[in-house]
Amino acid sequence: HTQRRPCRRVVPRALGLAGFRPVRTPGLGVMATTGMRGLNIFIQDVRNAANKEVEEERVDKELANIRKKFKKVKDMTAYDRKKYVWKLLYIYMLGYEVEFGHMHVVSLISAPKYSEKQVGYTVASVLLNENHEFLRLVINSVREDIISRSEIFQCLGLSFVANVGGREFADALAADVQRVLCNGGARPIVRKKAALALLRLFRRNPEILDPAVFAGKLADLLDERDLGILSGVMSLLTGILSHDHRGYEVCVPKVCAVLTRLARNKDIPADYQYYLLPSPWLQVKCLRALQYIPTPDDPEYRAAEVEVIEQVFASTTTVRNVNKNNAAHAVLFEAVSLAAQLDLGEDVSLITHAVTALGGFIGENAEPNIAYLGLNHLTNLVAPDTLDAIKAYLPSVIPRLHDVDISIRKRALDLLFAACDSTNAVEIVGHLLRYLTTADFALREELCLKTAILAERNAKDVPDGERWFLETALALIDKAGDFVSDKMWHRVVQVVTNAPDLHAVAATKCLDRLKLGSAHEMFTKVAAYCLGEFGHAMSVTTHETSPAFYSELLLGSFKIASVDTRRVILTALAKIAMHAGADTQLRQNLGVLFRQHAVSEQVEIQQRSVEYFVMTNVGGNPTRLAEVMRPMPNFPNRVSALEGEVTTAGGGAADAVAVRKARTGGTVRVAPPPPVSSADTNGAGHGSVGENVPTMGLADLLGNNPGSAPAPGAPGGPSGSGMGLEDLLAGVSPTTPGPAQPGVGAGGLVDHMSPLSGPTNGYALGPNASVALVDDLSGLGTGAPSAARTGPASPGHNAASNQVPPSVDLAECLNKLRVADNGLLYEDAFIQIGVKSQWQMNQGRVMLFVGNKHGGDLRNVSLALVGTEPGLAARLAPVPNNLGPKKQVQVLLELAATRAFANAPRLRLEYFAESVDDGVNNPGVNHCSVVLETPYTVHKFLQPFTSDDKELFFQTWRTLVGKAQEVSFVRVNALVASGGIAGIEKALISCRLTPKPGYDPNNKNLVAGGIVPYTTNPNTVVMVRVEAETHDARAFRVTVASDDPETVAGVSKALVSQIAE
Fold first, then answer.
1. Above 90 in pLDDT, residue 427?
2. Cα–Cα distance between 374 and 383 in angstroms, integer?
3. For 499-602, where are the alpha helices, taking DSSP H only?
4. Which element (helix H / strand E) includes 1035?
5. With contact defined as beta carbons under 8 Å apart, do 724 and 947 qualify?
6. Lowest mean pLDDT among 29-33, 388-392, 531-535, 887-891
7. SS3 assignment, position 852
8. Residue 1021 is inside which H or E element, if any?
9. How far is the C-alpha of 405 from the C-alpha of 418, rounded, in Å?
10. Whole-number average pLDDT of the chain
11. Which helix (H) or strand (E) holds 891?
12. 911 has which bridge partners?
């Protein structure tokens, strides 16, 4: 015989039968699954299943057997009913749906024996929820158990109510449960369960308890000596007070008496002491309950609360035992929260004592969890009457910004933000600016926002505050432009415009930074505004302060700027041309720029260019229209938009936040950004998309013709030299000698209306390669169009069909195909679809191998494209309506990237199959209808990035970041992490990107690039930067940038799928 393992009991702990020992008495059986041989065998079979398919087969077989047995109710014994119900529970806990057997569970609850009732209650509490219709059938049975003389039955009924009791239970059973709770003759464990059951019912219907009647009873229950009952009653009281405290003020002295008994007298049994601490969990419940009640008007009640808090402060010490420390500190932190809630008028001794107690927890040697809680509670205590006491501990908070634990760093930032005022603003803001260069990526956005808010809040009270704010804001924008919103520079120009003393200062500082080069694009916006508005306020002592010089600097920034930045620069240049000190030569030079962009594809750029050219270069207009370009008037006084980026919330116990008194400060979290419009952020027009799909024009794209020419632009091909970034930007540097390039006009300015497409799609094609247009998609070939077919079921089968599930992990198959050209796309019991693909330029061909694994015919087979985006032209060849047994057909899918797109096309697969009962497949008709996601996003069309100019790489990077970018914080999988930066490089190569090792100044980071040869824009550049996290070797920040958000989304999705956990 095989030795069998006994199965574990499947009994929810919430039933709370730990207080009873199973005793064999006449007529009362002991519930034990170990004696159920059939149940043990079934559990062992499931555990020993070799794979998921074997497990499902065994479970289906058992469900069929149980269903068959339940049809013969008269032949079933109580033992059989319990055994089969246990099996249903086990199957349900494995994750399978159980749609029958509920009536047998209900009948077990109504049974007279304990062993049957326990099985019924246990299974019902797991299978049924409070809204299940079958629960109505057991309300009377539960009530009979609650009011019965058997304490075991009472515990079963009360535990069941506490687990799944709903509104109907509350209406029917509340009075009975309340009577059990107030019955002094009942055992403590029964009354404790009654308190928890009543709490559940109160949460479902608060009207069942009237404060005028129940408050007195609840106060009497707080005099109980048994701590088990007290624990349940305190949970009930806390739940009631969190809903509404009115009417329950009479409980305050009783709760304080319980705390005094625990903390001072320690009058409790030894079983309730935890490391010599008297029931710390009950103390926490009492302190939290008091937080829901406003400060009592009665001096005796108020004095009782203060005495209890002081007792906790005095008795809490730190010892070496970690468990004892945790328990003692839990009580202390609740006492601190209560002290913060009390309003004691001018008496601040209690809150000062609380600050002193917390200040000892934030030192460098403090345990991390305690330091976190200390910082969090100190932040919650910040208020006008506590600020001076808290500021004494700020020198210990600043080093916590560099803690290893990011959660502690966040709490330290919150505390510095809350405790900052005019006396320490310069020091704190200075520390935050220095910390910005080493802060985590996840923290920089919040750090920048809070630093700017602190600088503006305290600018009026700091000597030379407006200038200090300007320097701080410019430093933030320059150092962390990627992490600040446009509201930052908008606020800077508002403050500077309204402060005449800052006009010359702002223009000078912006000019000094532009002269250094490589300024962030957001800083360029600020500089353009300040130089355009206030450049004339600078004293022209040298050539570097002349309008000709700084307009030349702005022209240099204009070439690599995004559309939004170009709008600002154009306006600034127009204002410079209209300044009193501007000469005719300067206007003519700027007029060249305006004329070139008068035909820009960007409507607003075009309109501004035309208007500014007319204003600055048409005779007489500079004088007549000078008033139009006068400096901006002062902005109206308004609240900073940065303040709206954060919301303030009080801390402490989450349940008690709603009743806390309002205090200054609090923890700050970044507000969610507004939804981003799906429109093209560049505003670039893509033109109309043709309906013809360009095909590859190769003899055999799938490799059957070994004589095929190499792909254009590939090494060894006619265009093996590739294209540099100069070609991608359609221009050259003004200082670089050489022949004129297409798209470059006078002065080296880029003309964005120059031709971007041609017969070669922007690339030189080899002599053996051809690009041909094919017929319209709607009239492709001689076959029927590949629209979704909706045919009837197979003849003779009108009954309901069995849905066929896949037999492979579709997500895993998709992830593999994202970086592989060949592989498995889909497989189930009847059909298998493999793919083989090849890619050239902006075109690809995918051969789908559809095979019938089944011994019979597959009928009404349909494979159709669904959800194709406009930027991806796709054509799918028709598939035969019927597929014979063991047959395979090839279906060609042709793809062409005409313009930017974000999502891959999807395929809808449908078929019907007949099967016999072979032990694996269900007999009858099997139907499959599934939508398959394909891996063919933008990254499949990427071409090598061949430029080796590092400086030009990052110039283009800054341009693309201003157009469209997506930032992902990723924890990489173990395989990538084991390889370090080499693993990241391998993942980039697998996504067809070209890594550039050594380009990034940080050797732990890696950048890469690629080119997407869309038909409408064949030189679309994609760049990726992967930055390593300082404190976590497996955390990386992945930034993908390109000309449009669709391309960014497609490449980012593919890359993250290959490196993420």
1. yes
2. 16
3. 503-516, 521-534, 547-559, 563-578, 584-596
4. strand 1035-1042
5. yes
6. 29-33
7. strand
8. strand 1020-1028
9. 20
10. 78
11. strand 888-897
12. 928
Polymer length of the chain:
1061
Is 57 exposed, middle or buried, given 0-12, 13-18 or 19+ CB atoms closer than 10 A? middle
Q: Report pLDDT digits (tens) over 678-702.
A: 333 333 333 333 333 333 332 332 3
CB 873 within 8 A of CB 896: yes
pLDDT digits (tens, 9 = 90+) for 879-900: 888 888 888 888 989 898 988 8
As a whole number of angstroms, the distance between CA 54 and CA 45 comes to: 10
In whole angstroms, how far apart are CA 313 and each of 73, 293, 656?
Answer: 65, 21, 21
- Rounded CA separation 162/94 (Å): 24
673-688 residues labelled b (16+ CB within 10 A) or e (exposed): eeeeeeebbbbbebee
CA distance 129 to 107: 17
Please state the pTM of the whole predicted model. Answer: 0.57
Instruction: Say how many C-beta atoms besides its own lie within 10 A of residue 318's C-beta.
Output: 14
- CA 374 – CA 81 distance, rounded (Å): 56
C-alpha 714/C-alpha 98 separation (Å) is: 58
| 173, two tokens | 């059973």
Between strands 888-897 and 843-852, the pairing is antiparallel
d(CA 305, CA 282): 16
DSSP sequence for 694-760: EE---S-TTTT-TTPPPPTTSTTSTTTT---HHHHTT---TTS-SSPPTTB-GGG-B-TTS----TT
Token pair belonging to 25: 């008495």
HEC letters along 909-973: EEEEEEECCCCCCCCEEEEEEEEEECCCCHHHHCECCCCCCHHHHHHHHHHHHHHEEEEEEEEEC
Q: Tokens 């019907």 — which residue?
A: 912
**More confident call, 3 vs 975:** 975
Q: Give pLDDT tens digits for 482-519.
A: 888 888 888 898 999 998 898 999 999 999 988 888 88
C-alpha distances in Å from residue 514, one per residue of 99, 474, 520, 569: 71, 12, 10, 13
Q: Cβ-count burial of 467 within 10 angstroms (0-12 exposed, 13-18 middle, 19+ buried)?
A: middle
Q: Token match 């191998």: residue? A: 849
Which residue type sits at 84?
A: Y
Q: What is the DSSP string of 151-209?
A: HHHHHHHHHHHHHH--HHHHHHHHHHHHHHHH-TTS-HHHHHHHHHHHHHHHHH-GGG-
- Residue 1021 token pair: 């550049």
Q: Please tell me the predicted confidence (pLDDT) of residue 549.
A: 86
Q: What are phi and psi of 855, to 5 degrees?
A: -80, -5
- Locate 889 and state its tokens: 């057909």
Copy the structure tokens of residue 933: 């996601």
Q: Within the chain, what is the greatest distance between any pair of CA atoms?
A: 116
For residue 1008, the SS3 value is strand
Q: What angle do CA 726, 727, 730 make, to 5 degrees?
A: 90
Place of tokens 């034990």: 32
Phi, psi of 617 (to 5 degrees): -125, -5
Alpha helices in 967-1017 (DSSP H): 974-979, 981-990
Instruction: Write out the two tokens for 1047.
Output: 């391309």
Q: Rounded to whole angstroms, how far apart are CA atoms 340 and 349?
A: 12
How many C-beta atoms lie closer than 10 Å to residue 78's C-beta?
A: 15
Confidence of residue 177 (pLDDT cuts 50, 70, 90): very high
Question: Among residues 1019, 1013, 993, which one has the least CA distance to residue 819?
Answer: 993
Question: How distant is the alpha carbon of residue 950 from its chain centre?
Answer: 34
Contact 1004, 1019 (CB under 8 A): no
Q: Both tokens of residue 867?
A: 């959800």
The backbone region for 836, taken as left when phi is positive above 0, alpha when psi lies in -120 to 50, beta otherwise, is beta
Amino acid at 129: N
Q: How far apart are CA 959 and CA 726, in angstroms?
A: 14
Range from 4-18, 353-367, 928-942 carrying the lowest mean pLDDT:
4-18
